[in-house]
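Archive transcription. Copying these from loose printouts into the bound notebook so they stop getting lost. Printout 1 of 2:
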Amino acid sequence: MKVFVILCCAFAVALGASNTLWNDTDLDTLRNALLKDYDTHVRPSNSKTTTDLWVGMTVLHMEIIEATSTLETHAWLKMNWTDVKMKWEPAKFNGIDNMRLSADDVWQPDLTVYNSAEDKIVDHYAKTNKIAYPSGAVLWVPTSKFKTYCSLNLKMWPFDQQKCEIKLGSWTYDANQLKLRLSDDPVELKHYYKNQEWVIVDSSVEHHQTKYDCCVEPYEDITFYFTLSRRSPMYKAIAVVPTIAIVFMVLIAFWLPPDAGEKLILNGFACVLVCVLLIYFSQLLPVMSETSPLIVSFYSQTLYLLSASLIISAFVINISRKKGHKALPSFIKTIFLDNFVETVFACKSKAAEKAEHTVEDGNAGENATKDWIRFAVVIDRIAFVVYVIIFICMGFFHFV
């Protein structure tokens, strides 16, 4: 029993000693003095006094998501304001000239992204500490992630530039209560992590004051504008270079002998290649109701031209290989063979010269075959010239 009493006394002495080991620091004293009875839900100014909020942004990373027409931004949002409840005299607190506070300790402005594309209401800012100063100034630089709507124009894809915006404003405080101001350097890019696809080529900031239908008081917002240019070396290899190969395949087909079946193979392969690329584009790009990329339009029009080229090739092969032709109609012969047309377009091609040397005079059927072969050559050459002109016009319209 005596042992138990002795142990209880020792424990009580130790407990009392532990309570006297800790003394409040100067920061504890200052914190208790400032935050006693502090209401974080009340704006720290008199009702007739406006709180000035200085805003700036340090951009860390940006990414445009075409599928959802959104801009994803990682940044540090710099906010400064004066909290009259947080003033103190450093001399009374051992010279303390700043103090760290948790995010929920003091009032903070309800700065909201007006054009947010988040699926649900989220807190845009991380719960980082605030820094308070004796003058009542409060500095808060939370890491932030914004997902905002961006109206995309992919007409010039993959050489496009997109202009997107981030619109920030108070959700409940009007301009008479919370005055938004731009910091000295409102947009900083020195900490920007380079994107593999997008480059920021321009940035600007504008301050607006708007009256909404819901309220009589004006509300302010600060809108950050960013112009991003796509870096397109890979897209050049995927989308642009194949156009050169396809154009050459189409044009080469017109220079093959008129009876060569390779014409159909070449044009057919070009058709398959165009279809594959169009399917690839449909998976890569969103469906745009207003404008479609010019490169997609180019491939679509090329597919029509290839279809026409297949028809021309099939017709040329048919009239070149068929034996026992009737004589070429006189008006066709007059227009295409007996004047400068054949000289200009066919240039007495090897196929026509071969026909002339292999066909004996006096045989009406074989002479007719010779005329049809010469006519086929002229059709090929005329089609070649027409397609060259069409491709030049299309290239100028789509890529220049």
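Printout 2 of 2:
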Amino acid sequence: MSRVFLGPDRGHSLEARLAKATEALSVVPVVAILMIGTRLRAIQLEGGLGAPPLWAQLCMYGATLACFFRFLTAVCSFRSESEEALATAQGIRSTATAMLFVCCAAIAVSTLVMEAKSGDNEPLGTMMQCMLALTVAYFTETGVREVFAKVQKPEDPAPSYGSFSPTSQEEDLLALPARVSLQFPPMLCVLFVAIALRAVQLHLEPRFWAVCATYLTTLATVLQQLRSTMLFMKEGKGSLLGDEAAGPAFCPTDSDQKSKIFWSVTTCCIYAGTTLILLSVASMESKASAAASAPAPLSTAMCCVMALTVVYFLTYLLVMAGSLLRQFFGTWAQSTATGVQRALAFAPMLCVMMIGVRLRAMQIGVRDPPYWAQVCMVVATGAVITQVSCTILTESESGAGMVDKDAATKLMLLLLLGLRYAASAVLFVSVASLMISLAWMQPVLE
């Protein structure tokens, strides 16, 4: 909006502030899905009226407040000319970050130690276990980046929204899979909690091969995060999260054969495991009867989460494949990756919103949210997919080579650009409608 309404000159300063502030927002989807997972665990143990312990609920408020403070300090202090103001903002941000990490650790502990009042405790499911493991690994990596991050100074160049983290011009594109060490966990956590919600509501459980695939995917993701964390500590460069909220994560510069094999193997495991997990959703069997004839139909929220997961991982796969085949598609991959990241930035949080609406319906005893809310889910999902598609078609054709295009090509690119902006507006309206449905949803009186 700063670009559209303020123009490239006046909007640049605001855009730079907001681009920098996205670092503070990059952890929000993981924080939110951790809260939803804790709430789901309480419902699993106590039914629709179950709630986490009071101290865990207070930690949720504390984590939310900390996220707001991190964002506000980043917006207000970026490129400030006063060293004193920078020091004050950094102190506030550090305090808020410590508060955020402590509160999230307490929320995760509450999920593990929560017990039913009746004493009849169900074991923590596979999906919830893996969600907690990914959350711990994610916050470990972000915590290390907080400690070793280079503080932004007034003379530093302003970041561009969705841009790559600073790397050498001679960087090996085979290292691209390492960029996603902070991109995959939020989407995987969302998928795991969505499946856990379906399992709790319909009393289902994943099959053995799906459980193995879940553990495999989690292990590969955690290994990537540990490797990326060690490389970040070793290299010691880059900002807090690069532009992880909307751009690729920090890219390690090691290009030895062992490193290439490591990233290739772990990435293949993540994709293979995620594929099996998605296939297992419709084949989950009832806990009461393993011989259940027909699986329960998928909810609209579950279908949308699965669709966004497929688009999310498939888009990354296309970009990584283009990088690996750089002799043929390297230029396309480099020009497209940044725009695709911007288009996918809302996918994890959109999934969190849809799961929250679905969980609210479950809490008040309704199987599905209102029909219009389900329509908003489908429309929002379609908007994200439209944005991604338009970005893939337009980003690689824009830039300096645009002047050499014929009139028909330019017209097509302008139409796609307009469609992308329209999809963005539809996405915001749909999310606002989901928030309204979350607040106004009422139980159905029989």
